[in-house]
Amino acid sequence: MQKAERLGKLPPYLFVQIRNKIREARERGIDVISLGVGDPDQPTPAHVVQALQQAAEDPANHQYPTDEEKGMLAFRRSVAGWYKERFGVMLDPEREVLGLIGSKEGNHHLCLATLNPGDVAILPDPGYPAYFASAVFAGAQVERVPLRREDGWLPRFDRISDDLASRAKLLFLCYPNNPTGAVASIEFYQQAVDWAKRYDVILVNDNPYSEIAYDGYRTASILQATGAMDVAVEFNSLSKPYNMTGWRIGMAVGNPDLIAGISQVKENTDSGIFNAIQYAGIAALEGPQEPTRDLIAVYQRRRDLVLETLRSIGITPDVPKATFYVWSPTPNGMQSADFAAEVLEKAGVVVTPGLGYGQQGEGYFRISLTINDARLQEAMDRIKGAYS
Ligand SMILES: Cc1ncc(COP(=O)(O)O)c(C=O)c1O
Q: For residue 69, what pLDDT band results from cuts at 50, 70 and 90?
């Protein structure tokens, strides 16, 4: 088969490479512990599973989803209620909310809805790799804005040249940030919105980690910034707070024209989310939130174990206020791929090399906390043993 040129423009997907490395090591008899992918190990809360079971029994839900690409109004109302309660953001469920098959889908379809071939999309470096694919599939020209440790892994708008800003059509942000665990304040979002308005740039905040925050920290939404509704769309997801990565349900909220654009793409590509999953989504958003609080306590304990282990071998990791990742410099400034290969060899543990997220990730690595306590403890013991 002659593949389309757009596929040739993509680097190998980071996690596929990691999966291959794990397979090779396992074939060599190594008991590999993977701290690579961020995919919650805990089950979905029981009341959410029950809501799905009940809804799946109803033949009315076996047809194409209600309101297809938009998501059921009941789900969109639920999202609007949650945004009001959680962030104090008022949303019109008819025009400013859209159901998604996960936030990854939203990022992708937004690019198809807004970018013409040759348009400039600015992506964070380091950043979640799927943004690049989404921009490239739309034929966009990708430019990078560096995120640096000394800036709290936030882009510096004062350092984006007038030339680049004037050419840019869209800027991706992601806070709380994958891979660095950095968070953004409302003041930062305000700077972003003011910049986007000045240069007429579409602003995206990918926010699927908004509920995974530690030490009582409350994350913000970009829609809390004044004027955000004029230029911004935010993606959020039920994947992480409710351990629902496999269910594929999320939401887009924000500027009605951007929402309508994504909706139009969806109308022509997918037919929305299985109704029964949307009913389960409503149960997740409107039901008891204790399971999420318990989950955060688990991740916080794991985070502290990882931080303590890395410090004990002389590394100074960032202390994440949110996300289930620990982002850390490699020891002695090692190249990230060399370090990841060495940890796999010496300890049988997979960490993600920072370079996989962009040039600015070089010299860093990421550990995901989504593995059961016993295996994480084992992985930390092995790393400690290999590097002390
Ligand atoms: C920054 C970021 N965006 C989007 C996603 C995908 O989320 P969803 O399951 O909602 O598609 C992930 C998953 O790891 C992520 O890290």
A: confident
Q: Give the residue, by CA position, lying nearest to ligand 1 atom 6.
A: 104
Ligand 1 atom index nearest CA of 238: 10
Global confidence as pTM = 0.95
Q: Is the CB of 318 under 6 A from ligand 1?
A: no
Per-residue pLDDT tens over the stretch 198-249: 999 999 999 999 999 999 999 999 999 999 999 999 999 999 999 999 999 9
Ligand 1 proximity of 205 Cβ (cutoff 6 Å): no
Read off the pLDDT band of 108 (50, 70, 90): very high
Exposure string for 221-248, b = 16+ CB within 10 A, e = fewer: bbbbbeebbebbbbbbbbbbbbbbbebb
Number of the ligand 1 atom closest to the C-alpha atom of 248: 9
How many angstroms does the Cα of residue 126 sit away from the middle of ligand 1? 15
Question: Where residue 11 falls among pLDDT bands split at 50, 70, 90?
Answer: confident
Q: How far apart are CA 48 and CA 286, in angstroms?
A: 10
**Per-residue pLDDT reduced to its tens digit, 15-63:** 777 788 889 889 989 999 999 999 999 999 999 999 999 999 999 999 9
**Within the chain, where are the H helices?**
5-8, 14-27, 46-57, 73-87, 103-114, 130-137, 162-167, 186-199, 228-231, 256-267, 275-286, 290-312, 336-347, 373-387
Q: How far is the CA of 130 from the centre of ligand 1 (A)?
A: 9
Residues 210-223: tens digit of each pLDDT: 999 999 999 999 99
Ligand 1 center from residue 104 Cα (angstroms):
5
- Which atom, in ligand 1's list, is nearest to the CA of 249? 10
| Ligand 1 geometric centre to CA of 159 (Å) | 28
Residue 331 CA to ligand 1 center (angstroms) comes to: 28
Amino acid at 314: G
Q: Is 123 in the pocket of ligand 1 (CB under 6 A)?
A: no
Q: Is the separation of the CB atoms in 110 and 258 below 8 Å?
A: yes
- Taking the centre of ligand 1 as the mean of its atom positions, its distance from the CA of residue 1, in whole angstroms, is 30
Strands 250-254 and 97-100 turn out to be antiparallel
Report the half-sphere exposure of 170 (CA within 13 A, side-chain side).
31
What confidence tier does 256 reach under pLDDT thresholds 50, 70, 90? very high
